[in-house]
């Protein structure tokens, strides 16, 4: 079976991207990263891609007259790389319905959806006083962190956690979940039926 083609979208440090780069080095993983895209310049995520010899692109909202113009430019450049799966890994821009209609898009979020959606999952979980939080991989839909859930991993909140320590612990679990689920989807396929996501031979 041919390797699945991934386009990975990032906005920051790119440790999830790095985990995927490392996994893709093994041909048995079943996927390769065709390109890495970002909504801003000068981020470590892009540097990680460049060090790995992966093509990169940047489309900044501020370079476009309208948000629709940016949406369309992102769709066009991603299309060029013919992805089987788009992985939003720390990408801090909402993706348009048109983009989502064209590409199977997964997003990793640092909380147990449907709890604590948005850009501050670890902070919101800590402020709420939950004892267990985690990470969620989901199929992106037009809402914010509302899409059908592919995988989740729980992470304990410790008494002395601050936002940084909690987020770091979540990210360790999140990377393993992401690599495992994306690899299984690449090798075995996935089906989405309403809110039910199935990976594996029964998919499709
Ligand atoms: N349509 C969707 N797009 C994306 C989703 C999603 O669930 N639906 N998830 C993300 C990531 N995300 C949290 O998981 C998230 C990203 C961005 C925002 C947001 O409000 N962004 C603002 C800009 C903020 C900035 O640039 O600093 C915006 O897009 O204008 C909320 C949640 C990936 N995309
Ligand atoms: N709502 C989106 C969101 O909060 N995304 C989170 O940003 C971090 C990116 O880390 P990374 O750049 O090191 O992969 C990850 O924890 C990801 O879930």
TrEMBL record:
Group of enzyme by EC: transferase
EC code(s) of this entry: 2.1.2.2
Site (Raises pKa of active site His): 145
Residues that, per the record, bind N(1)-(5-phospho-beta-D-ribosyl)glycinamide: 14-16
Active site residues according to the UniProt entry: 109 (proton donor)
GO molecular function terms noted in the UniProt entry: phosphoribosylglycinamide formyltransferase activity
Keywords: Purine biosynthesis, Transferase
Coiled-coil regions, chain positions: none
Annotated pathway: Purine metabolism; IMP biosynthesis via de novo pathway; N(2)-formyl-N(1)-(5-phospho-D-ribosyl)glycinamide from N(1)-(5-phospho-D-ribosyl)glycinamide (10-formyl THF route): step 1/1
PROSITE patterns, alphabetized: GART
Transferase keyword on record: yes
One Pfam family linked to the record: Formyl_trans_N
Residues reported to bind (6R)-10-formyltetrahydrofolate: 67, 92-95, 107
Catalytic reaction equation(s): N(1)-(5-phospho-beta-D-ribosyl)glycinamide + (6R)-10-formyltetrahydrofolate = N(2)-formyl-N(1)-(5-phospho-beta-D-ribosyl)glycinamide + (6S)-5,6,7,8-tetrahydrofolate + H(+)
Residue ranges occupied by any Formyl transferase N-terminal domain in the UniProt entry: 5-182
Role description: Catalyzes the transfer of a formyl group from 10-formyltetrahydrofolate to 5-phospho-ribosyl-glycinamide (GAR), producing 5-phospho-ribosyl-N-formylglycinamide (FGAR) and tetrahydrofolate.
The family this protein is said to belong to: Belongs to the GART family.
UniProt xrefs under HAMAP family: PurN
Protein name as catalogued: Phosphoribosylglycinamide formyltransferase
């Amino acid at each position: 079976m041919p390797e699945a083609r991934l386009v990975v979208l990032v906005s920051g440090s790119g440790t999830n991207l790095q985990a995927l780069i490392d996994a893709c080095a093994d041909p048995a993983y079943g996927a390769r990263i065709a390109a890495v895209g970002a909504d801003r310049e000068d981020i470590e995520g892009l540097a990680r891609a460049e060090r790995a010899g992966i093509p990169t692109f940047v489309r900044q909202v501020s370079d476009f007259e309208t948000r629709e113009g940016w949406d369309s430019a992102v769709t066009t450049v991603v299309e060029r790389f013919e992805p089987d799966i788009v992985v939003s890994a720390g990408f801090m821009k909402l993706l348009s319905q048109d983009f989502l209609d064209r590409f199977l898009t997964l997003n990793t979020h640092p909380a147990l959806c449907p709890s604590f959606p948005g850009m501050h999952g670890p902070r919101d979980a800590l402020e709420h006083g939950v004892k267990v939080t985690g990470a969620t991989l989901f199929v992106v839909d037009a809402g914010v962190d509302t899409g059908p859930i592919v995988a989740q991993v729980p992470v304990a909140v410790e008494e002395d956690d601050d936002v940084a320590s909690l987020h770091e612990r979540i990210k360790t679990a999140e990377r393993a979940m992401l690599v495992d689920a994306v690899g299984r989807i690449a090798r075995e396929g996935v089906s989405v039926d309403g809110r039910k996501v199935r990976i594996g031979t029964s998919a499709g």
